[in-house]
């Protein structure tokens, strides 16, 4: 699995609020379709306003998704670059964290 695929899977919309926004938009579209047979200037005006707000929300959600994706890619690249440039520091940090975690687990185990 490539780095791009792992990153995409990490931020899959099914696990985020993007899914909720998409459900809200589709529900609103269904509501607009179901009221299409009703007439009157007030209802037509309300439908038009709702349609405009829906389009604005859809565009804003796409923007949020793009920004989140770009930030995640930037963070991934920065972390990857740091680890490659500071390999020994990264290994030492991982060993230190592992040793501390092991010590905490052993300490907890002795208390029982």
TrEMBL record:
Keyword list, A-Z: Cell inner membrane, Cell membrane, Coiled coil, Membrane, Transmembrane, Transmembrane helix
Protein known as: DUF883 domain-containing protein
Coiled coil: 40-67
Record membrane topology: Single-pass membrane protein
The keyword Chaperone appears for this protein: no
Gene Ontology annotations for the cellular component aspect, listed alphabetically: plasma membrane
Compartments where found: Cell inner membrane
One GO MF term attached to the UniProt entry: ribosome binding
Family: Belongs to the ElaB/YgaM/YqjD family.
DUF883 domain: residues covered: 21-61, 79-103
UniProt keyword annotation of Transmembrane present: yes
């Amino acid at each position: 699995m490539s780095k791009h695929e792992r990153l995409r899977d990490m931020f899959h919309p099914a696990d985020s609020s993007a899914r909720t926004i998409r459900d809200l938009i589709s529900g609103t579209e269904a509501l607009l379709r179901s009221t299409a047979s009703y007439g009157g200037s007030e209802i037509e005006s309300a439908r038009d306003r709702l349609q405009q707000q829906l389009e604005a929300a859809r565009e804003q959600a796409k923007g949020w998704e793009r920004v989140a994706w770009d930030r995640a890619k930037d963070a991934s690249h920065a972390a990857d670059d740091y680890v490659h440039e500071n390999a020994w520091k990264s290994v030492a940090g991982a060993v230190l964290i592992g040793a501390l975690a092991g010590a905490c687990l052993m300490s907890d185990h002795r208390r029982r």
